[in-house]
Every structure is written in structure tokens, then in C-alpha cells.
Write a structure and sequence with these properties.
Elements (H helix, E strand, L loop, with lengths): L14 E5 L2 H11 L3 E6 L4 E5 L9 E5 L13 E5 L2 H13 L4 E6 L3 E7 L5 E7 L8 E4 L6 H15 L4 E2 L1 H16 L5
Parallel strand pairs: 1-4, 5-8, 9-10
Antiparallel strand pairs: 2-3, 3-4, 6-7, 6-9, 7-8
């Protein structure tokens, strides 16, 4: 190998999450999100899950042994890409039916995302890439009960207006500041 070789990352492979209650988390990630268990070791308290088990052995690892309190924010977000807007809308409806705590439903210009919390308070997202180009951050609240064609027209119009500069709603700015202040006041961030 050449000494001037620069290694590169191909893609993110998987994320491991330590849990207070692995069984509860496992039920959520399989029943609500539809991930498949590909392997597990009960003695070690680990479960391997994948959305694409034929392609990727695991994308999420659930492990017992979380020692941080349930009020400690460890993960900013774990995001799951969907192949269609219809799937994002389907998850949105499923979350409402199952009383999954939602954070926000937004257009990022280049994606539509539904942010939610798993049973242990880890923030997650399901999203669909729109194919549009938009400078980030781009946070615009949307209503997924809107007719799909009308919703996409609104997103395209917003990207035409703000895609080069980005767009962040004031409510998101306030939310981010509140999260940062809470982290500082509890000593999580230094």
C-alpha cells in the first residue's frame, strides 16, 4: 500500500444502543419500526437488528447495561431512511396509533422527516429524500395529513425560496437553545 493512501469511510454500518430494558426496546424496534432480529446472545444481553437482513447483518445493536439515568440525553438522533414518502406517512400514522411520543414533523428541503422517541427516550427519525437540494439547516414544520401532491408542491416552493440559504423556524431555534441549556445545567456538556 502506498504511503500517500488516504483511507475513506464507505458508509455508516450500525449504531449500538445500551438499554435499561432491552426487551421493551426490542419490542419497539421490531414491532413498531419493523426491524428484523438477525442474531442475539441472551447471556451477553445483545440483539442485532436490520432493515435489510439480506444486505446488512445489522444496522442497530441493542445491548443491556445502560448505567446513565433515563433523564440523561446520550443520543442526538438515530435516523432511518425510507424509500418513499408514503412509508414516512405510514410510520407517522403508526406512531400516532401506538402513542409514540413525537418530537417534530418537518421538511429539510432535501428530506421529509418524522422525529420520535423510542421507549427509553432516544430521539430517532424516519425520513425520505426528496431529491431536492437545500442548504442545511432547513427546518420547516409540515402536516403529513395534507394531500401528498399539495405537500410536495409546498416543499418545492419552499426550497425554491430558501434552498440556497437554508431555513430554520423560530420554534426550532428556541427548542435547540433549550436543549443546550438543559445539557449545560445538568453538567452533560462541558
Amino acid at each position: 500500500m502506498s504511503t500517500d493512501f488516504t483511507p475513506t469511510i464507505a458508509e455508516l454500518g450500525h449504531v449500538g444502543i445500551r438499554c435499561h430494558d432491552v426487551a421493551r426496546q426490542l419490542e419497539f424496534y421490531t414491532e413498531t419500526l419493523g426491524l428484523t432480529v438477525t442474531d442475539h446472545d441472551e447471556d451477553l444481553g445483545i440483539w442485532f437488528l436490520s432493515a435489510r437482513p439480506d444486505t446488512e447483518h445489522h444496522e442497530v445493536l441493542l445491548a443491556s447495561g445502560r448505567t446513565a439515568g433515563s433523564d440523561v440525553q446520550l443520543i442526538q438522533q438515530v435516523s432511518f431512511r425510507c424509500d418513499s414518502l408514503e412509508s414516512v406517512i405510514g410510520f407517522f400514522r403508526r406512531f400516532r396509533e401506538r402513542d409514540v411520543r413525537l418530537d417534530m414533523v418537518v421538511s429539510h428541503g432535501n428530506a421529509v422527516g418524522v422525529y420520535f422517541y423510542d421507549p427509553e427516550g432516544n430521539r430517532c427519525e424516519v425520513y425520505w429524500q426528496t431529491g431536492l437540494q437545500a442548504r442545511q439547516p432547513f427546518i420547516e414544520h409540515i402536516d403529513l395529513d395534507t394531500d401528498t401532491d399539495e405537500l410536495l408542491d409546498r416543499i418545492r416552493a419552499s426550497v425554491a425560496r430558501f434552498g440556497d440559504t437554508g431555513f430554520t423556524e423560530a420554534s426550532y431555534v428556541a427548542w435547540t437553545k433549550e436543549q443546550n441549556e438543559n445539557a449545560l445545567s445538568t453538567g452533560e456538556s462541558k
